[in-house]
Amino acid sequence: MTTALLWFRRDLRLADHPALLAARDAADEVVPVFVLDDVLLKSASPVRVGFLVQALTDLRSRTDGALRIVQGAPADVIPDLVQRSGASSVHISSDYGPYGSRRDAAVKAALGKVPLVATGSPYGVSPGTLLKDDGTPYRVYTPFLKAWRARGVHSPALTPRSVTWSDGGLRTDALPAAPEPVIEATEAAALARWTQFRDTDLESYHEIRDLPGVDRTSRLSPYLKWGLLHPRTLHADLGSSAGAEVYGKELVWRDFYADVLHHQPQTAREDLNPLPLEYDEPGALFEAWKQGRTGYPIVDAGMRQLLAQGWVHNRVRMIVASFLTKDLHVWWPHGGRHFMQHLLDADLASNQHGWQWTAGTGTDASPYFRVFNPVTQGRKFDPSGDYIRRWVPELRELSEKHIHEPWTCERPPADYPARVVDHAAERQESLDRYQRARGK
Ligand SMILES: Cc1cc2nc3c(=O)[nH]c(=O)nc-3n(C[C@H](O)[C@H](O)[C@H](O)COP(=O)(O)OP(=O)(O)OC[C@H]3O[C@@H](n4cnc5c(N)ncnc54)[C@H](O)[C@@H]3O)c2cc1C
């Protein structure tokens, strides 16, 4: 009897899973394992841990109870599991992030003669695949998209009819205590969500995707983050409509940012295009931003949704990121860290580069001098104020006229904070700092 270890990471599913097929083909039985890695767990909010715990519970039952969940450092844990189970190979989906790449190199070295076999990745087109004609990586999305389309995406992998799962005689640790997830974290729920979105909202996605009050984007990002669903499955099922075309392009942003981070891992912490700007140290205003108490309704709604649900609409992510960097003059990594802690879909590449796009230091960024006005953004993208009413109960009774500017009411709600800064003044301050930076 031969044994292969299948080490699950950001691929918590059984469908469209090339590494699972490789493990099944390599041996008579497959031992599925997941490592609870402290490095990743310590920076995750309870909301995200709750999602992971339910996804692992589901995967355990779908692998006939065989999934072994073991706590520790992967470079110690994986070789130990190999030795105890007698596995002759370890199978993974590639991880291209800075930490994941280092971790996998350490595990490979620690495994010695037992191969660490990487098949597939969490992306439509894996990082490092596409290069410009001169052999250098892409830094701008549109030419990347063109190259991505020219290459095309593979069809989904077959789902194996049966796999001989085994626990390899290994122990399993308890899952961490965590709250119930805010959305159902199972592979079936991910597919059901996709099907529902495809059948109801995909066609009009291009018209409604920017409206947080309408709130009808796919909300698949947490599933994509943990790999309960692969983007290949979505690309294959898009069909053709104006909405599907735009949706497919959004999925390519995810591949693009992963590619940029793969080639420039330092951009997880630093500007891709450094600007010698003067920043303010994060202090009381940063705390007000984190708590959703800035006095700007759409900013506060977004920051409160983040704490409550671990998810925020894309348009609002841009608005709150612009507010922190341009109105409060705080360097983006501070906000990026807060997002990475709380988002269910926290993804280093999409997050750090989404922040840099807004801050004006990243890829084909909105230029630094484009500063989002939280009032006009609110009026344009949440015209009736529905999104604000959902997350800021103090403002629920305000009319459409006042909800984006409660300070214009004759008697502003007493329990809602006054504006912590004046947007017009801070916009000018931002532009002045930008001019000084350019002169340096
Ligand atoms: C400051 C900031 C931080 C962000 N942090 C993250 C993050 O940590 N994780 C994350 O997955 N996305 C992040 N995004 C991108 C985007 O906001 C989310 O992917 C999107 O809101 C998820 O909701 P959805 O699944 O309903 O998206 P949909 O609109 O339904 O889009 C479908 C999918 O396309 C991908 N996608 C869409 N827009 C983007 C984008 N701008 N960049 C990369 N991928 C995109 C996502 O995988 C998304 O699930 C961030 C954006 C900004 C501005």
Quick summary of this structure?
Helices cover 48% and strands 6% of the residues. The protein has 440 residues and is mainly α.
Written account of the structure:
It is a single chain. The protein is mostly helical and 440 residues long. The chain has 3 domains: 3-121, HUPs (Rossmann fold, 3-Layer(aba) Sandwich); 123-155 and 186-263, Serine Threonine Protein Phosphatase 5, Tetratricopeptide repeat, CATH 1.25.40; 284-434, DNA Cyclobutane Dipyrimidine Photolyase, subunit A, domain 3 (Orthogonal Bundle). It has 20 helices and 5 strands. Helix 4 (74-85) runs parallel beside helix 5 (98-111), helix 14 crosses helix 16 (348-359) and helix 15 (332-342) runs antiparallel to helix 16. The model has no long low-confidence stretch (mean pLDDT 96). The structure holds flavin-adenine dinucleotide (FAD). Flavin-adenine dinucleotide (FAD) binds next to helix 9, helix 11, helix 14 and helix 16.
